[in-house]
Q: What sequence folds into this?
């Protein structure tokens, strides 16, 4: 059977939908031959609707259309209730038919069974220079290296060598303002080292922020605070504390660079590693005392209670007060997964948490769009997804899904058994009516409308005699719509 042209099919669908709503059963039956060619909706909409229509006008072969639909895989009987049960519910094999329909429901073609999602944390705030000044700052910096960690160490050494520490402060500005003052001989404190280092790293695509450290009883006295920076290092998959004033970072016994919460949790001082020109740290125990209390750009944490006063004269301000330091430390290799489509097929897309991500990777293959089709081959599948930054592919996360073999077998079985059944029942339907009444009615231009399942209305058309009527004309042409319950 030839498929009607799209414009004709759109008109016929609209007329059929209007006939279903209006209880014009002969109009609907007139369209049967064309509706049979509507392969998108024949099984699930038109065949059951025509079965109801044929019953309404008393045709003896009414049930054949429903049997044909069930043979082809139809299972949505509920969309046509109560009319379909009213029409055929007293048939002796009705329970058997409904059971067959229930078993027609196939498994989903694809099912995602495991996917990565970011751990919940407080919003990440970084120490960045304003966007319109970033390019000017970048021109002053040592260029990026191959890896994020190598770039960070280079930037730490460069920052440490810019000036000799002094307890002076600059009231205005950002890293560019500080660098301009340093160029004419100014010297500043740990705060400015940290600001320059953090803003420089962000300009190079490495997430960084300033961290303020405080000793015990910091609410009174002097010399109770110190400022450092910390950065997320892609190739280490962790945050690392960086002291611009001393040109150092800290490592554990396995030589692994440490984050601020890790330094706070230690019972003994960690080892400082110097990369700058200013001599590093001579007394690790003295400086480790500064890690007792801390806050970072955008957040502070205090499991035992927070003291907002600092050295009698200042207030420790923070945008967000937390109890658990982990809430201030998102793992920036974490990713989310979005579901999308590519060429009409299900696909997944990497949603990075890293602020400087430039794409995603599946099975190690980078893609700037970060989206891939899901393999529909029957069986269980797995793939590693990761975010990609200018410094490479981050630590991957696993995605797993199942493609349903039975779903595809059901499609094949339904097609195989419906063809001969459809041919036989078509002949039966033809014989039940006069040949002159079989040609579908002409289809004038129409405006598509949402379809609904057939709703019976009290009328006198339940007899086999066809009432006189005039042909219904629909409104002007429009696009085809997808019938929906």
A:
């Amino acid at each position: 059977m030839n498929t009607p042209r799209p414009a004709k099919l759109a008109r016929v669908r609209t007329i059929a939908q209007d006939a279903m709503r209006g209880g014009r059963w002969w109009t609907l039956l007139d369209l049967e031959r064309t509706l049979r060619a509507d392969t998108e909706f024949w099984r699930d909409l038109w065949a059951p609707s025509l079965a109801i229509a044929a019953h309404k006008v008393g045709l003896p072969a009414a049930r054949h259309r429903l049997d044909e639909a069930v043979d082809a895989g139809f299972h949505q009987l509920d969309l046509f209730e109560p009319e379909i049960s009213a029409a055929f519910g007293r048939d002796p094999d009705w329970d058997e038919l409904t059971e067959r329909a229930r078993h027609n429901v196939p498994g989903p073609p694809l099912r995602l069974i495991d996917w990565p999602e970011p751990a919940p944390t407080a919003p990440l705030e970084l120490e960045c220079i304003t966007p319109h000044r970033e390019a000017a700052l970048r021109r002053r910096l040592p260029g990026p290296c191959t890896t994020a960690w190598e770039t960070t160490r280079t930037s730490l050494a460069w920052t440490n060598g810019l000036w000799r520490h002094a307890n002076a402060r600059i009231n205005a500005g950002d890293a560019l303002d500080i660098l301009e003052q340093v160029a004419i001989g100014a010297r500043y404190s740990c705060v400015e080292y940290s600001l320059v280092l953090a803003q420089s790293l962000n300009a190079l695509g490495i997430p960084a922020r300033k961290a303020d450290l405080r000793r015990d009883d910091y609410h009174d006295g002097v010399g109770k605070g110190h400022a450092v920076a910390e950065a997320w290092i892609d190739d280490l998959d962790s945050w690392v504390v960086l002291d611009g004033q001393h040109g150092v970072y800290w490592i554990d016994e396995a030589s692994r660079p440490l984050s601020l919460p890790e330094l706070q949790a230690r019972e003994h001082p960690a080892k400082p590693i110097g990369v700058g020109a200013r001599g590093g740290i001579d007394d690790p125990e003295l400086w480790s005392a500064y890690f007792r209390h801390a806050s970072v750009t955008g957040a502070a944490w205090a499991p035992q209670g927070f003291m907002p006063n600092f050295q009698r004269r200042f207030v420790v301000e923070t945008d967000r007060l937390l109890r658990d330091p982990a809430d201030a430390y998102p793992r920036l290799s974490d990713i989310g997964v979005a579901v999308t489509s590519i060429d009409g097929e299900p696909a997944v897309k990497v949603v990075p948490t890293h602020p400087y991500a430039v794409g995603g990777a599946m099975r190690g293959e980078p893609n700037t769009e970060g989206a891939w089709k899901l393999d529909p081959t029957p069986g269980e599948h797995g793939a590693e997804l990761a975010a990609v930054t200018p410094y490479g592919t981050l630590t991957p996360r696993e995605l797993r899904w199942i493609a349903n073999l039975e779903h595809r077998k059901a499609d094949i079985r339904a097609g195989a058994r419906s063809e001969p059944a459809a041919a036989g029942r078509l002949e039966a339907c033809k014989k039940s009516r006069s040949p002159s009444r079989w040609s579908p009615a002409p289809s004038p231009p129409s405006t598509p409308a949402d379809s609904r399942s057939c709703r019976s209305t009290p009328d006198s058309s339940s007899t086999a005699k066809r009432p006189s009527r005039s042909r219904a004309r629909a409104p002007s042409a429009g696009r085809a719509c997808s019938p929906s319950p």
